[in-house]
Design a protein that fits this description.
single chain; alpha/beta; binds iron/sulfur cluster
Length: 311
């Protein structure tokens, strides 16, 4: 890789269970096989499992704090101003009573703390999740995890991206390439990660549901004005491959490649041994291995083109 700033590839999927983490891990591994310094970021914070596919352990656990207002009743005049201005209605105020916080609705905006005329609200914080950083077989992994029962997953994704921004600012050459793995869907956690990408790889499967969700995520990608190329996973499912690929091409959807159903993929998944890691010994003529090899050839063409454009 020639650039000072790492190229960022984001693997995503409109629906869950399409194999996006499988693709993200194997793409990261293939880039590592070629001697690149690769950082894989698991941004699926409600279900982070990349480390399991890599047979790694989570290390360097760091808390993700989140603002919460703390009320000092002895100072409160019961005026209700805080509740009136709390947009997500996280404060309940009944006349002549102290406000009642419902912190699971709190967005952490701090407005109540800033506008209270009596200084009866002071900043406090709670832990809403954790980030981890670890090295697994030459691959760097950042991973975010939302605490069970907490709802603010975007704040955990933001904490991961903030760590990434710090690294790029302080040591832009630390990594050649970043691979982001998002949650399924097209919500704000996903958008935060897509927005960082130079190339987005939506992973889908050859079903009507898969196509509908793919179209939704492509609409979001196009709104963000990002480049994308699709992977069709389990493409041999029900013999629908050729028709599905034809439909995508007719809709002008750009395709990076397709992956058939394959025993070695299942074995690699169950054993936590990435199919494409050069340290593993899978059949190089197997359908999954050949498919990932072809996907990587196409991906490298895109990377070469991107580097040429960046000079
Ligand atoms: S704005 Fe301050 S003083 Fe008024 S009800 Fe809220 S906490 Fe009490
Ligand atoms: S921090 Fe914002 S969202 Fe939370 S209680 Fe205060 S005003 Fe409401």
């Amino acid at each position: 890789m020639k650039n000072n700033k790492p190229i960022t590839i984001c693997v995503t999927g409109g629906k869950g269970g399409t194999g996006k983490t499988l693709c993200a891990v194997n793409i990261a591994v293939m880039l590592k096989n070629e001697g690149n310094k690769v950082l894989l970021i698991d941004g699926d914070v409600e279900n982070p499992n990349t480390y399991l596919l890599l047979s790694g352990e989570l290390e360097n656990k760091t808390e993700v704090p989140f603002f919460k207002p703390k009320f000092l009743e002895e100072k409160c005049s019961k005026c209700g101003l805080c509740a009136e201005n709390c947009a997500p209605h996280a404060l309940l105020h009944i006349k002549d009573s102290y406000p009642i916080p419902m912190l699971n609705l709190c967005s952490g905006c701090q407005l109540c703390y800033k506008i209270c005329p009596e200084d009866a609200i002071i900043p406090d914080s709670k832990t809403i999740g954790w980030t981890y950083s670890t090295e697994i077989n030459g691959l760097s992994l950042f991973l975010g995890e939302l605490k069970p029962s907490e709802a603010r997953s975007a704040a955990v994704v933001e904490a991961l991206l903030s760590e990434l921004d710090n690294i790029i600012e302080n040591d832009p050459k630390k990594y050649d390439i970043i691979v982001l793995d998002t949650a399924p869907g097209a919500h704000c956690d996903v958008e935060l990660l897509l927005d960082k990408a130079d190339l987005i790889i939506p992973v889908t499967e050859p079903t009507r549901f898969g196509k509908l969700d793919l179209i939704r995520i492509i609409e979001l990608i196009e709104l963000l004005k990002k480049d994308y190329k699709v992977i069709v996973n389990r493409s041999s499912l029900l013999g629908y491959r050729d028709q599905f690929l034809k439909e995508l091409k007719e809709s002008n959807i750009k395709i990076l490649g397709d992956i058939p159903l394959d025993n070695d993929i299942v074995i690699s998944y169950c054993q936590g041994k990435p199919l494409m890691d050069k340290n593993n010994d899978f059949n190089k003529n197997g359908g999954g291995f050949v498919a990932f090899t072809n996907i990587f050839i196409n991906l490298k063409k895109w990377i070469d083109m991107k580097e040429t454009m960046q000079g």
